[in-house]
């Protein structure tokens, strides 16, 4: 699913006031009772993570470490659930018993950046001997009251009441997915270990906090249904993640557009993009198709269906809630005719992404040749230019990242570019070159750093001929001089490895 | 004062005031220009009317020379002579925006009575003294300032923003109002004062247009038309890297530069290619940094050779291609093919209004007035030439604004998008768009670059809204092509 149109719709959905609270059948409307929390410290663990990101400008270096402290929840099978953001790029995770303050090291067992969830395990099995795992409460709806839990320094559980004000599909912070999100209104106080905290109701887990705005006193939480999907998946042999359909769409509010495509009834969304080789593409969905229903549920003009618990919800929830491999029926309108197309959901294909939206827990790839530093374009590289990177980073690279989905050639590969040049003898005259996209090396088309590494192995007449999609279009390096210069760089700049192709 | 004293005074004052000052005052012209800015936001309406003062000087054939930027977009020109209160109506004969020069004349023959035409000298020596005459701020009468020649170099001419030519830097004070005034040495014009740095940025840095540029302009217009500068339309790079020199077949002593990009539609297109080493231009050896030694013996950018040529002339390159030396002759028939990045003057903004949607071609003036945040539009404008986007379209046509009306109520998200096709017809320039929207059809399906959903307008709805939009928004013309 393309994120952008979903953002428009999802943000629209979050703006209005409370949805009517959905009441469960045959149950009186619950009055909020100021209950003492049934959750004790036995279900909570302080998670202290030391994280260190790589420097995308000097990919052989890591940046200064930073610390994140949150409250993890003990879940089934002696695992601790936290948000992925807490532990991205972690170098050391420390788990701390809230009462005894006993500490052990922890490690990440499963992480899903898209749903922002991570499962940790203690290095010492006994650490969670007396822990009480929490069960999931998947039935919370708008209007329900929950408690957000924090820990006092003495280990007592502090609870802050909150109310679920809105439920919608909204973009998650790290990856590219928009998933079910609960917005809570709650005046949380600042306390230690609050990077992520649990939201509970009657002793069961309703969700995990991922964002908090102290001005409006609202929190966004990852709700139990998403956590349940994650946990079920994590218990399989291979973690497959939330499935993808591979299409983008836009609302059809314009009556002129509706008449043009022959939409007689109320709903439907217009397919604006189909990812080549994706699930929708394989099933035969085309740009210009109008989606009328998904999994038997009619879709309105904004792409929403009626969810029994949550009311109007973006239809992506129907596919995100399913599993990789499931078949979902899409009813579409094409050339005035309705037809049903089943789409087999797929796992995200990270290999086909041109410019990665995130690179966590691994070193960025790079290759130095004769002082020339080559890297693969990724959004984290552009983000090194700071908050205003869309205007300040090299515009050509910003455009290649922003519009990457428009390149529909099958083997697009990655964008390999010269990021900078070490002043060396072999690169004399080239020291001012930077941010140039590589097209060929030694007459070999370059679609990845692996291609470049292979091409360097075969110089022509003792030269490396490097061609750019830019100006200057061609430069030459002396193959022997390059190797000598590289050896000098290792020494003089203290760089142990002049490449990372992992 | 008795006569004898007067003579003595005159002799004492002779080197400074007596004869030279009297001559220059007879040649100086004060120009009062009233101009109207073009309006790129409401393109069927005129923009602000502004008034400014500049200088000019009389040359042969009853012509007044000044800067283009003094008289650009002018609607009314008044000129007056030093010491004569009567203002005269003037008009533009020729204007050259690519080198900031213009020629005016006055139809009333009385204007030129008693005036003196100045003549042109050569390039003054570095450190020699020059005098600047004009009407800068600080008073209404003729002002003289004096300085020395500091530097002779290629500099950008800010009037167009994209052209660079030979420029002479002097340290005499050049202020607003000096524009178009002559700079004299030994009674001859050695430059036209035209730009400078403000005091906060740099001090005592003023620039004048040197006589080779002026002479070229005067020669160009002899046939009654200004044909503009011809251009090589390629990029080139120094050859400092030893491996690159060897790979191209050059020895250590050889000089020359290597061709980078050759721009489509330019004078080098099809004749020179990427990788050619340019060894000599018109017989002058090209140094590794791209300079040649011309008249004065000082190195200048090799582009100066082409700068002095006129449309229809040729330039000869001695090149090294694939290891073999050969000669390539380039007929100089074109100017720089891409005008969109230059500041434009004396032109009405072009546009089409349809269904309350305003479509305009994107150029430097448009970008300055709109300053759109749209990433794609900025990318297309900035990289139109360097990324060869010109191969796909002649102009970047964008939906610049929406005159709100029920017919376009859902078009907001398409603002600043680039028009790609209309009803399947590729839109390469504004004329294509006007033509496509004139063809009868039930729907106009406008596909924008990078957008999956088209902007659809129903002909019936557009027709019904037309009068309503015209009246409500005062749309005087629905198009200017």
Question: How would the blueprint of this fold be written?
Answer:
The complex is a heterodimer of chains A (502) and B (481).
Chain A: H1 3-14, E1 44-51, E2 66-75, E3 79-83, H2 84-87, E4 90-96, E5 103-112, E6 117-122, E7 145-151, E8 157-171, E9 178-185, E10 198-201, E11 204-213, E12 218-223, H3 224-234, E13 247-250, H4 255-261, E14 269-274, H5 279-283, E15 290-294, E16 297-298, E17 304-307, E18 311-314, H6 316-320, E19 327-334, E20 337-344, E21 366-369, E22 372-376, H7 379-383, H8 389-392, H9 395-402, E23 416-421, E24 436-441, E25 444-445, H10 449-456, E26 463-468, E27 474-478, H11 479-492, E28 499-500
Chain B: H1 3-13, H2 19-27, E1 28-36, E2 49-59, E3 63-66, H3 68-71, E4 74-81, E5 88-96, E6 101-106, E7 129-134, E8 143-157, E9 163-170, E10 182-185, E11 188-196, E12 206-210, H4 211-220, E13 234-237, H5 242-247, E14 257-262, E15 277-281, E16 284-285, E17 291-293, E18 299-301, H6 303-307, E19 314-321, E20 324-331, E21 351-354, E22 357-361, H7 364-370, H8 375-382, E23 397-402, E24 419-422, E25 425-426, H9 430-438, E26 443-448, E27 455-458, H10 459-473, E28 479-480
Antiparallel strand pairs in B: 1-2, 1-4, 2-3, 3-6, 4-5, 5-6, 7-8, 7-10, 8-9, 9-12, 10-11, 11-12, 13-14, 14-15, 15-16, 15-19, 17-18, 19-20, 21-22, 21-28, 22-23, 24-25, 24-26, 26-27
